[in-house]
Design a protein that fits this description.
Layout lengths: L42 H12 L6 E3 L7 E8 L8 E7 L3 E10 L3 H16 L5 H22 L4 E10 L5 E7 L3 E7 L5 E5 L9 H9 L4 E2 L2 E2 L9 E2 L17 E6 L5 E5 L1 H4 L4 H15 L5 H18 L6 E8 L3
Parallel strand pairs: 1-3
Antiparallel strand pairs: 2-14, 3-4, 4-5, 5-6, 5-11, 6-12, 7-8, 7-13, 9-10, 13-14
Pfam family, one: PP2C
GO molecular function, one term: protein serine/threonine phosphatase activity
Protein name: PPM-type phosphatase domain-containing protein
């Protein structure tokens, strides 16, 4: 996440871009204890392992292909030249559920790498997928990364938004949002009516409701930043913003909503490198146009990949200087 901290004094050169590609055939599995606060691995060792994993240039996403709920997806991740890409993405197709997530790291990439690596496993620990269990899973993610970050003396943080699709025939979908990433949808409703809409609300210190929440916790916002420092008001990690005396200012409490996945629809998840310069409607219209222009035969994945590229290119053209990560999902017509 570019310039997330006010104390950063980075001079922005001309943007260069790289595209990452899916590289994993299986999600990284880690045994975990039932206790939310227990991480049964050597913490410093895991921090080193995550750092080593990040050294691989194309290691921005876990990607699993499946043939469950009929849908196509693709992602792109472009970096700002001022630092290594701190964004991550997850595309996971499983027999129990599928997960699509974009993760925006700041202050380093340990937090975003941790969320990428452990999100699916932590969700899989929950016996049932409900609003309450997804809230518990997010708390687990925060607690376990907190242990790792404490051991590693790391103060990075990560915002994320995830679309979770239950693979039980119900087409139930959940949105988990913590921070200033966003998911928007162009959904096909009854009688062929379509609707452009955001499925999540940005958690930023500039948001009036978040300012009120922070004030109730005894905190303050200066120049649209929590304590004059951090722009997002909810995140995983950021231990230096969650010290005694600052409890409740920056939190990991997610926004969760439940609905039904619509047929013949487009879903776009992106980090704020996109949303800071493009509206929901502009992003969705561009995604739809590019998908229709570039789908090959019945391979909707090609159209999704073209939509991702178009969104990233337009974001740069509009002046974005942040890391840019985007997932486009096209559902089938069932």
């Amino acid at each position: 996440m570019e310039m997330e901290y006010l104390r950063s004094n980075v001079q922005l050169p001309t943007l260069t871009m790289t595209t990452t590609t899916p590289i994993k055939s299986d999600p990284l599995k880690t045994k975990v204890a039932d206790d939310v606060g227990t991480l049964p691995v050597d913490l410093e060792g895991e921090a080193d392992a995550l750092a080593d994993e990040d050294d691989e240039e194309d290691n921005q996403a876990i990607h699993i292909e499946g043939d469950l709920v009929p849908l196509h997806s693709a992602f792109v991740s472009w970096k700002s030249p001022t630092h290594a890409n701190e964004d991550r993405a997850v595309i996971y197709r499983g027999s129990r559920f599928s997960v699509f997530a974009v993760i925006d790291g700041h202050g380093g990439d340990l937090a975003s790498e941790f969320v990428k690596t452990h999100l699916v496993d932590i969700l899989d620990e929950e016996p049932d997928l409900t609003t309450a269990s997804l809230r518990h899973a997010t708390a687990t993610l925060e607690r376990r990364f907190g242990e790792l970050a404490t051991a590693a003396n790391d103060f990075s943080g990560a915002c994320f938004v995830a679309l979770v699709v239950v693979e039980d025939g119900s087409r139930t979908r959940f949105v988990i949002n913590c921070g200033d990433c966003r998911i928007s949808a162009l959904e096909r409703l009854k009688k062929h009516r379509r609707e452009y809409k955001a499925l999540s609300t940005d958690h930023k210190a500039s948001c009036p409701l978040e300012k009120q929440r922070i004030a109730r916790a005894g905190g303050y916002v200066i120049m649209d930043r929590v304590a004059g420092v951090l722009a997002p008001s909810r995140s995983i990690g950021d231990l230096d913003m969650k010290v005694p005396g600052m409890e409740g200012w920056v939190v990991a409490d997610p926004e969760i909503n439940e609905d039904v996945l619509c047929r013949d629809s487009l879903y776009v998840l992106a980090t704020d490198g996109v949303w800071d310069v493009m509206s929901d409607r502009d992003v969705l219209r561009l995604a739809e146009t590019s998908w229709l222009d570039n789908q090959v035969a019945h391979d909707g994945t090609v159209g999704c990949a073209s939509s991702c590229e178009a969104i990233a290119q337009d974001s740069v053209a509009r002046g974005s200087r942040d890391d840019i990560t985007c997932i486009v999902i096209r559902t089938g017509d069932w």
